Amino acid sequence: STMEETDREAVATAVQRVAGMLQRPDQLDKVEQYRRREARKKASVEARLKVQSLINLSVRGYQVMSRTLNLTGNEELRKNHLRITFREHLLTIFYYFKIISCKLFQNNYYSSSPACFLVLLLSFPEIVRETQDLIERGELLQAHRKLMDLECSRDNLMYEQYRMDSKNTHDMNLIHTYFGDMQKLSEELAKQLWMVVQRSLVTVRRDPTLLVSVVRIIEREEKIDRRMLDRKKQTGFIPPGRPKKWKEKMFNILERTVSIRIEGTQADTRESDKMWLVRHLEIIRKYVLDDLLVAKTLLDQCFPPHYDIFNKLLNMYHQALSTRMQELAAEDLEANEIVSLLTWVLNTYKSTEMMGNSELSPEVDVNSLNPLISQNVVDQLLSKYMSTLTSNIIGWLRKALETDKKDWIKETEPEADQDGYYQTTLPAIVFQMFEQNLQVAAQINEDLKTKVLLLCLQQMTSFLTRYKDEAQLYKEEHLKNRQYPQCYVQYMIAVINNCQTLKESISSLKRKYLKIEMEDTLSSSHTSMDATLDIIAKEGCSSLLDEVFMDLEPHLNELMTKKWLMGSNAVGTICVTVEDYFNDFAKIKKPYKKTMTVEAHRRVVVEYIRAIMLKRISFKNAEERKEGAERMIKEAEQFRFLFKKLAAGSGEDTEGLCDIIEAIAEVIKLTDPSLLYLEVSMLVSKYPDIRDDHIAALLTVRGDASRDMKQTIIETLDKGSSQPNPNYVPIFKEITVPTLTVPKLLK
């Protein structure tokens, strides 16, 4: 073939040429010199071949363009356009070539021949295309190597131009224009680098080599930047686009990526999810911790130590979080949202769940981290929280009271606790609400917890006053129509029990949430709350006893009448009625239940003695007196038995009160009038609050004492020699004696 013939011919010519060179022995010493000369010739021929092939390539390009344009109309116009385009392309190349050959090579700047430089000029578009392909294939290191070579050639060319004629902007612009595509290449490569940097925390797990390549490229560019800046100091020349500052750009991109990462975690709004902030903060916590752990364990190894990449990232995250938290703090947050935010900022951020995680130690020192939001902003949020909480608590307490009042008029009995005591839901609702808010405040800090406790107790004080007023209104409404509400007694018992529960709850709340040193500041308000609760309970007990005695009234009116003397069962009915009521009263908690029993016992005895003092009967003879007195003693025993039964286990002394009835019965029973003075004296010494009108009434009921005898006995009594029982509570002072009927009975 033609190819083989050419090869054979070339070999023969070469052999002949070498034989001609080495005719004499001394020519052997010049072999190395010959070899170098031949190498230079070879390089020159290869360069000419390369130029020829590039010119051929340009011609072929011209032919392709020509064929493409042949498909459209106006032949002459097309030919002209192509001729001009092609001529312009070749002339541009040869213009640069002229600069090189005339200027650069005169100054021995390039060691290679002008032809080599012409090769570079001609092959520039092809190298650009290759570099573009490498970028698209993700082979960034090779792409950058080619880009550096191109930039180096352009920069040196421009530098020479600058050195020879710094004012010749026309030539400088020509060079800049010719290498214009290179700037786009640089931007395209940078775009790829920044994409890798943006995803560095993902890339470092999947393809760390890619990240290392990016860092190497940035480092190369930093070196070139430094070199160019040094040259600028010396010569005043710096190529276009320098310094690139890619390291600085990389950190800016990282910073922006971190900000977007933090902001992008808010998936919900308050409208779509009440827990939006809790979720947002939890996602931030998780992302930041994960990212920093990856940065510490993997990312750190991909960067040179002087980048201090982990600490830089840590600062970026801290700054982005600080910005985000300030934005959130400026929103119109609800009370629970303020708590979520402050808990996260003041506690979660530095806890082991986040920055205090042991795997981040020792690089992250939580004590050296600045606060995410200033103390001023924290104080503003706390102040807003306290005012919102105050109005919330007032609202909750008002609602709780309204709910309780609705319960009071139900037709079903109230719930009983595990011990069978009636109650309503009010104490549980109120203290559950207090507890929740105190637990929430405790998450933030001790100081807020104390403030919230003081707020709760302060609101409780005013709430109890309203509770007292409502219980009083409940009683008054009931008295207008005693059939309504149907379960009045049971709900009044529940109100009394609530007082005891509230007392216990207040004490428990203080024990749990108040520091001992703060006790004194609250002791007065605590005492006043207890006093208010005691008043509510006492008034409640009193209103229940009023119920009992309203039912007893017709039977009490029968006492000490003719009907009573003839054998009425009034006291039996009284005892049954009282016992029936006390079946319900058994649902009253101690100590109020004991108070009820004592008070009921006392009131029954007072009413019985009042019946005697009303002088509804005046015994006609000793027989009637004996019968009446024995009946009184028997009924006193009935009362004693009843109240002993009701007070079982309460340790109450039930004896003393019924003794008064018996002592009065003894005065009535006495058969010897001469001993009457002595008997009355004994009575007065035992019960020193007996007044003269009581003695007069008693003697009237007895029926056999003349006016003078009464006068004598009353005047002779020595009031000073009384020896009452130390436990005796005056009872006669409550009993008034009707005066209008006295003259009638004395006749």
UniProtKB/TrEMBL annotation:
Domain of life of the native organism: Eukaryota
Keyword hit for Protein transport: yes
Compartment(s) of residence: Cell projection, Growth cone; Cytoplasm, Perinuclear region; Golgi apparatus; Midbody
A GO MF label: SNARE binding
A GO BP entry: exocyst localization
Family in the record: Belongs to the SEC6 family.
Record-given protein name: Exocyst complex component 3
Species this protein is from: Ciconia maguari
Classification of source organism: Eukaryota, Metazoa, Chordata, Craniata, Vertebrata
